[in-house]
Amino acid sequence: MSTAIIARDVDADGQARFDEIIAADDKIEPADWMPEAYRRTLVRQISQHAHSEIIGMQPEGNWITRAPSLKRKAILMAKVQDEAGHGLYLYSAAQTLGTSREEMYDQLLTGRAKYSSIFNYLTPTWADMGSIGWLVDGAAICNQVPLCRASYGPYARAMIRICKEESFHQRQGFEILLALMNGTEAQCEMAQESVNRWYAPALMMFGPPDDASPNSAQSMAWNIKRFSNDELRQRFVDMIVPQAEILGVTLPDPDLRWNEERGHWDYGELDWDEFRAVLAGRGQANSIRIAKRRRAHEDGAWVREAARAYAERSSSERGETRRTESRLSVEGVAS
Amino acid sequence: MAPAAAEASVATAAVPTDAVARYALGLGDDALMLAQRLGEWISNAPELEEDVALGNIGLDLLGHARALLTYAGSAWGRNEDDLAYFRDEPEFRSRWLFELPNGAGGLDFAFTILRQLVASLYFGALYRRLAASTDPQLAAIAAKAVKEVAYHAEHATLWTLRLGLGTDESHRRMTGALADLWPFVGELFDADPAADALAADGVAVAPETLRDEVLAAVEAVLEDAGLAVP
Which residues on B lie below 8 Å from A75 (Cβ)? Predict the structure, then answer.
């Protein structure tokens, strides 16, 4: 297959057609010819996006058994389930590019693929469920809404579905913080302390500053990215400042002030050394996150093996009969 | 008044008697405990699809618990959170089966699936009967739950077959998990004075009347999966 791709990669007709589709801002579909570098970029971006959803289940999953009311618990369970679903959509989208989910997953488990730096921070308090929803999902939405128009059709369509659910999550997070800020003094303090921890990491989710983001220009030329990292980060800051006022929380940034001339909020320099350290695997929870995913995968190996063996058996006639019988017995009980 | 509107006003206005409330609380506690256990699986399952499925089932059960606890609490001026968060262990009415950890040695998929098999076939039989309760609120809660537990039963049945018939290893694990689980199954059908008194009025289901139906359904699946009742 790789030789076929290389052979097609020098296909002048294919390239011309690809350029035409990009110029017209139309969609590239899985069967279309595409430059190898475009395919590689998309596989990397979509799979890392999928990995982020999967690893992102952990910081919130941490609070499911401890949520402070049954309603909050139900919302959190539904949300973490949505995240697994988003991971599944995104793995499917990446698979249309000719890579397998197992292969992508293996890259995650062996540390060869990255996931969003934000999920390497711990969630020590309930208020973190609010901050993750409001700030982390808020940043994800700013990033992802433009991806609904990405040039690769399967990715764009996955993002449309995902963004609908993400915007619910963001409102839910905001609502958690709002309830805390209208609560006792201890609850207000918990909310503020949490926002203090999540503000800067959320701003870093947009990636390095434009002058240190070498791949951005190519992604923008291919209509994968529509706005630069700094443009999106600015949009996010402009969005959350008035929301913070409604909540009554302060944002931990002494340089945050309205710039009349630009018509935007100025914000302080971020700690890019910390960002690079987290991305390089030296953040708070990098090791814990991967260890937990690896353990779930290893402990579940016998289950996946059994399912495979059963599927092989049930394709035989005897298996089919058994399956039918058991279905009937379930329906018999259910009727 | 249209029949539907009349029904709704009965359902919202009705406050259960103390006896009905205690019965509803017991059912709600069973669902609440199992939901809590399933919540521990999220992000630890063998496959992403199972993270979704177990989370989904847990969420359904939590929904049943909330409805039952809300109804029970209305008799005592307490809400679902008062009952879930401000009682200690001696006051919980749940049965052991629903409280047990997800396996003797930690998160065990075999044990979890077998417990789900028993639980969902039990809930199915219970709620089908309870949907005809003379208490309209219990009937409404059960009628909604019955559709969901039918999905849970299908999920557990398919996994019991896959694991029972899959590999030697999966069969061995299922046999061990079944031995761990089985001592707790009988309690589901133990006579319960709160339920038995209400059963006479058609409000509740007497637990012992579910025994044959549920055990037959569980054993049929186990037999299909090549597993023997301990």
Answer: none
